[in-house]
Each structure stands twice: as structure tokens, then as C-alpha cells.
């Protein structure tokens, strides 16, 4: 059986672990050659090792535009082209706004928002040479709702949403589709590590918040399934859309 991403080349930023790793694995299962990009060389290599021969690990700091440009050029040289870009690299925060330092603010936006801009900007010429393709940005409900102690992260994700809308309009003539997934709380190692600060920020235990708002944790594989659909041919007329993946928590007052 031929997968829906057969013969495609996908670069997945921030894919050493968590949601990004799940997307990379699903893309590979569907026939794509996947470039695993992460700021941690060890994490990128470990993820590629789990996936197998169809995965190529690379290290990149998305906050550094020159590094991004060079990484994409190298990836294309290794694979022959680029069809799909996934922006999953992000840095969270759990600090009250008035306690957020300028350095922390700049670091969160530098990775989460600027990094998304850098990768989209430098991926577009490669996608144009293929006659089009798909860009998928991983956003967050934090960019749409008032989330205590998440000023920098929320601002960055709201910026990702705005960038997605603008790019979708600009790039549709190039047959480049730009969409975003907007997850709620997803069960990842990063989320588990932030349980304490998140509980403080939310004013209640994270598990209580999850039960009240989402009923349960979302799973990385559930995000990966949606990502595969949006990257594939079945979504050929879908661009500028935001796929809420939060078990209807955004619909609650």
C-alpha cells in the first residue's frame, strides 16, 4: 500500500521529541523522507534512529536565521528537494508578565515566533522550485486565550497565527498551502516537566485543569494524524486554516 506522502520530502523543525517526533514518525510511515531538525543534535539523532533509513537528523537553532538558511540548503542538497515544512520548534514560559525579564521575553519570541518566520522565509524558494507544497505551523490555544503567566509564549503563538494567515494569502499563487494546528494540552515530556510551574500559573493542579477543560490529555499521535492530513493531497484546497485540537475546550466559557 502506497502512503499518502510517498516520494515527498518533509523537514520537521523541533522534532527530536514530543509532537515533532510523532509527526516525523507518521510522515515516514506514510512514505515521506523526513529531515529531523532539533537544537539538540543528540535528540535529532535518537529520533532518526528510531524511525530508520527514511530519516535524516540535523541540528539547527531556529532563532539564528543564518543557521536556518544553511540547514534548509543542506537538507535539500541531501534529499533533492522540499515538499513539506513543519514548524514545531518552540520554547514555553510560565512566569507572570511583570516578572518576565526582557531576556526571557526575547528568548521565547526568538525561538517560537522568529524561528517560525525564519524557516518559512527560507523554505519558500525551495518549495517554489518543486511547484508548491505545504507549510504547517504548530500553534497553541495559549495564543487565543488569556493564559496566566504565559505572556511571552501566548504572544509568540498569537504571532504564529497572524504569520500563518498572511503567508497563506501571499503564497497561494505559488501553490504553497499554509495551515496551523492549534493544540490544547498534549501529553509530552516537556509538559510533564512543566507540571509544577503550570499548576502555579493556573491556580490549580494541571490534572484538575485537564479534567475540567479537556476531559483528558491529548496525545502527540493525535496531532500527527491531523498534520499528515493537512500535509497530504486530500487537503489540496485547504490553506489559511486553523485546526483546533483541544477536545472542544475552546468552546467552553
TrEMBL record:
Residues 8-220 form the Ketoreductase domain. Belongs to the short-chain dehydrogenases/reductases (SDR) family. PANTHER family: DEHYDROGENASES, SHORT CHAIN, ESTRADIOL 17-BETA-DEHYDROGENASE 8-RELATED. The keyword Endoplasmic reticulum does not apply. This is SDR family oxidoreductase. The keyword NAD applies. It comes from [Mycobacterium] burgundiense. InterPro entries: KR_dom, NAD(P)-bd_dom_sf, Sc_DH/Rdtase_CS, SDR_fam.
Amino acid at each position: 500500500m502506497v502512503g499518502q506522502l510517498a516520494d515527498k520530502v518533509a523537514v520537521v523543525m523541533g522534532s527530536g521529541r514530543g509532537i515533532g517526533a510523532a509527526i516525523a514518525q507518521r510522515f515516514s510511515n506514510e512514505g515521506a523522507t523526513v529531515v529531523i531538525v532539533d537544537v539538540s543534535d543528540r535528540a535529532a539523532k535518537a529520533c532518526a534512529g528510531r524511525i530508520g533509513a527514511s530519516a535524516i537528523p540535523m541540528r539547527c537553532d531556529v532563532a539564528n536565521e543564518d543557521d536556518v538558511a544553511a540547514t534548509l540548503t543542506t537538507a535539500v542538497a541531501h534529499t533533492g528537494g522540499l515538499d513539506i515544512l513543519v514548524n514545531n520548534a518552540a520554547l514555553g514560559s510560565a512566569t507572570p508578565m511583570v516578572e518576565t525579564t526582557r531576556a526571557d521575553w526575547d528568548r521565547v519570541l526568538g525561538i517560537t515566533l522568529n524561528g517560525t518566520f525564519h524557516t518559512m522565509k527560507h523554505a519558500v524558494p525551495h518549495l517554489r522550485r518543486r511547484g508548491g507544497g505545504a507549510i504547517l505551523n504548530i500553534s497553541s490555544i495559549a495564543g487565543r486565550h488569556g493564559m496566566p503567566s504565559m505572556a511571552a509564549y501566548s504572544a509568540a503563538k498569537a504571532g504564529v497565527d497572524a504569520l500563518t494567515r498572511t503567508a497563506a494569502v501571499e503564497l497561494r499563487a505559488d501553490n504553497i498551502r499554509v495551515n496551523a494546528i492549534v493544540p490544547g494540552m498534549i501529553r509530552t515530556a516537556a509538559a510533564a516537566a512543566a507540571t509544577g510551574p503550570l499548576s502555579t500559573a493556573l491556580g490549580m493542579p494541571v490534572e484538575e485543569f485537564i479534567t475540567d477543560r479537556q476531559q483528558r490529555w491529548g496525545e502527540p499521535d493525535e496531532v500527527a494524524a491531523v498534520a499528515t492530513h493537512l500535509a497530504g493531497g486530500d487537503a489540496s484546497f485547504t490553506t489559511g486554516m486553523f485546526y483546533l485540537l483541544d477536545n472542544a475546550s475552546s468552546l467552553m466559557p
